[in-house]
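Summary for the steering committee. One of the milestones for this cycle was to obtain a three-dimensional model of the protein with zinc ion bound, which we needed before selecting residues for the alanine scan. The sequence and ligand used are listed below.
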Amino acid sequence: MRTSYHNHTLYSDGRATVEEMIAAARRAGLEEIGISDHFVLAADGRRFPWALSPESLEGYVDEILRARQDSGGITIRLGLEIDYFPGMADRVAELLEPYPFDFLIHSVHFVDGFAIDLNAGPWEGLPQEERDRVWRVYWEYLRAAAATGLGDIIGHFDLPKKFNYYPSADLTAEALAALDAVAAAGMAIEINCSGWDKPVKEAYPAPLYIREARRREIPLVITADAHEAGDIARHFDRARLLAADAGYTELVRFERRTRIPYPL
Ligand SMILES: [Zn+2]
Ligand SMILES: [Zn+2]
């Protein structure tokens, strides 16, 4: 059994249609494909051209549900990657309530207006103490995101490492507290393979956190965070080895927000 759950399309910042992503998953021999475009509801009402808006949600859901009717033997899962903003969880839950989602990925991409993963530029211009602050608040927000209970999977756990800017102090304790929150929320974690293709050249999360996730019995998903069809199962074999090294023997998939384990 092979699944790929974290995938973007033209509905957000992907470069392929829903149909093209599904076709790529079929070609890659996957049994399940999940689409999880960005859904961003910022506290200040800001709009992001690269994300689904509340108005575009219905069309997105309709297209994915329609694709199921002629799926060519592959199971299509309805997902979303939701951005964490303090104080917005109830409103987001309310907006998503009418739809039959299979899984929700909860991610932190912003720390008080600072875009963590857009490009290296904002990091480059930041004094080290500000970088430290971004990392610190990131772990706080990730903990808070888990505690909202909104998501099923926590997105790219240690994302701020993307451009190789690290905190000057050791924040492992903060990261482990975030993992504790993920465990307490009953959420899964992803080995997000996109990191291998970024400046950091390492999957999210780092091996230490995968081992720590295993110790906490946090369920695991392997994802590509694909923004184009060719990336639909990138580095999955490598991720399986990483998961096995950390002691994992099974992965999970989702149906209507219920976890289903299967052998690694
Ligand atoms: Zn993301
Ligand atoms: Zn993503």
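Key point for the committee: The two ends are 8 Å apart (CA to CA).
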